[in-house]
Description:
Blueprint: H1 2-44, H2 49-69, H3 73-100
Keywords: Membrane, Transmembrane, Transmembrane helix
Amino acid sequence: MPNATVATNQTxxxxxxxxxxxxxxxxxSLNSLIKAVFIPxxxxxxxxxxIASWIIDIAxxxxxxxxxxxxxGKVKLLLILLLIWFAAGIFWGAEGFxxxxx
Length: 102
C-alpha cells in the first residue's frame, strides 16, 4: 500500500508541475495577445506604445489580484506565485527599457 501512495503522490506532483507550466504559458500568450490587439489601438489614439504596454501590464496585474481574492486553497497559492512571477517580469522589463533609453 505505501508504494501506491508514493506513486500517487508523484503523479499528483507531476500533474501540478505540468499545470503550472501550462498556466505560465497561458498567461504569457494571453498578455502577448492583449498587447498585440490593444497597443495599436492605444497608439492610434495618441498614446505611446511603452505607456500602452504598462497600462496593459497593470490591467493584467489587477486581474490577478481579483482572481486571487475570489479563490481559495492551492489555486490561490498558484495564483499568488503567478502574480509574483508576472510582477517580476514587469520589473525586469522596466529595468531593461530604462537602460536602453538614450
